Amino acid sequence: MKIILGVLASDDDGYDKMVQAAKDTCYKDIPSEFEVFYLYGQRRGVDIPKGSYKLNGNDFYYDFTEARRFILVKTIAFFKYCCDNKDFDYIFRPNCGSYISLPLLKKFVEKNNLPLNDVYLGVPNNNTTPGIEFASGSGYLISKNLVEALVESSENLIYDSHIHYNNFPMMDDAVVGSFLYNSLGLKATKGLHKSVKFTDSQDSEDIRNILVDDECYHYYFCHSLEPKCFYVIHNKLKNLGIVQ
Q1: pLDDT at residue 164 above 90?
Q2: 3-192 has which fold?
Q3: Residues ≥6 apart with Cβ < 8 Å to 92
Q4: 10, 84 Cβ separation under 8 angstroms
Q5: What is the pTM of this model?
Q6: At residue 156, does pLDDT exceed 70?
Q7: Are the beta carbons of 5 and 36 closer than 8 angstroms?
């Protein structure tokens, strides 16, 4: 089994601190079954070939405007890079506001004997774009055959979330879900996930009350830019003997 992670990353608006916290915790020790990349658009000080990508270690840069509305652009570019250059069974595409336990993700895939084809798994959601069931962009697992289908149909996808459906923005995760359903009849199935609500008004005591267990592999911080959450969850999983 080989799973590639493509973590949405950015230097702007505090996301750089979230990326660093993720690197310090959940992606610090990477099991042999995994490979982790951080997905950027155009980045200050990085010379990217025009209309193409650049790989610097595990940082993947794509020559396009870095903006939330264009997340799908760098996602599909990374999917194509993986199809052309990597051997893998699944891609897990989280954002940098999620703690992903790689050992527990491996355990989930093996315990549930997931097939190699037609896997689209995450946090089912249709609240932000009613009428389209999709896996939340906070983190979803997608099998290689579906990655290839998205790449092959890339010219037909909607890349700008300023385009709306029923007055709701077509964000990257909704576009992926819409394509998989309309083209292949696939809906997102539910994985193991916990939402960790945190606001700037909360203190460290509230963060320490976050509950973890030895099954859940995905903790989502609900758009909160508080890197301390990563360290608290990591230490709790360390106490359970799940991570080092």
Answers
A1: no
A2: Spore Coat Polysaccharide Biosynthesis Protein SpsA; Chain A (3.90.550)
A3: 3, 4, 5, 6, 100, 105, 139, 140, 141, 142
A4: no
A5: 0.94
A6: yes
A7: yes
